[in-house]
Amino acid sequence: MPADAEDGERIQDELRTRLIIPADRAGPPATVTGLDISYAVGSRHAVAAAVTIGVGDLRGREVAVAEGDISFPYVPGLLAFRELPLLLEALGRLETPPEVLVCDGYGIAHPRRFGLASHLGVLLDLPSFGVAKNDFIGTHDEPGERRGEWSALEDGGELLGRAVRTQTGVKPVFVSVGHRISLADATDLAIALSPHFRIPEPTRQADIISREILRDGRHSLD
């Protein structure tokens, strides 16, 4: 854990040198594990959930959770240090190791090109990508209105990801690679995992489950 924000930025810069971002497609995995974390209002308490979903049938395979207090303060651009301990604990409780990780957040679409999805991917050496509800950095044209259409997310001419329409007529999400996955594959997975809702099913379920546990200690995989 970094001592302060400056130390956190130094760690990000160091770990970023390990990033692997392939240009070529690798094809869809059998499963994707989604991650999200929910915070109790007015306290440092939080719940992280890891939910593995089948890519072909969108059926839930496994759920693991971790609960505890957050120690690192909220600092824009350093969210990973706040959430990593509980997310890693939840992932460590899965019986079947994940194939690909999807985070409710950013990969290289980040001021230092090292968001939560990149951080997790590098630490675990797993393919990872982020699907965020809002853009954090860069500019984009509005994608077409139909499901599956997208536009480039760029910053100073550098391609950081895509604004992707996962549902026709609904606001786009922002897809960026984290580690060991191409942008084309990350985009395809974001769309395939979002058959009915704007947010991909693995992270949607992780959000639901983490909120349920905060509320009443129970969870289910819908």
Overview of the structural elements:
This protein is α+β, with helices and mostly antiparallel strands and 222 residues long. Helices cover 27% and strands 27% of the residues. The chain has 5 helices and 9 strands. The protein has helices at residues 5-16, 79-92, 116-124, 183-192, 201-216, and strands spanning 31-39, 45-54, 60-69, 101-103, 128-132, 139-140, 150-155, 158-164, 173-179. Strands 3-2-1-4-5-9-8-7-6 form a 9-stranded mixed sheet, sandwiched between helices. A hairpin with a 5-residue loop joins strand 1 (31-39) and strand 2. Helix 2 (79-92) packs across helix 3. The radius of gyration is 16 Å and the shape is globular. The model has no long low-confidence stretch (mean pLDDT 93).
Q: Which tags fit this structure?
A:
single chain; 5 helices; 222 residues; 9 strands; alpha+beta; 27% helix; 27% strand
Secondary-structure map:
Elements: H1 5-16, E1 31-39, E2 45-54, E3 60-69, H2 79-92, E4 101-103, H3 116-124, E5 128-132, E6 139-140, E7 150-155, E8 158-164, E9 173-179, H4 183-192, H5 201-216
Parallel strand pairs: 1-4, 4-5
Antiparallel strand pairs: 1-2, 2-3, 5-9, 6-7, 7-8, 8-9
Helix pairs in contact: 2-3
Shape: globular
Helix content: 25-40%
Find the count of extended strands (DSSP E, 2+ residues): 9
Largest sheet strand order:
3-2-1-4-5-9-8-7-6
Overall mean pLDDT: 93
Question: Which sequence of SSEs, written as H and E, runs from N to C?
Answer: HEEEHEHEEEEEHH
What percentage of amino acids are in beta strands? 25-35%
Amino- and carboxy-terminal Cα gap: 35 Å
| Quaternary status | single chain
Stretches with pLDDT under 50, minimum 5 residues:
none
Largest sheet: 9 strands, mixed
Number of helices: 5
Structural class: alpha+beta
- Radius of gyration equals 16 Å
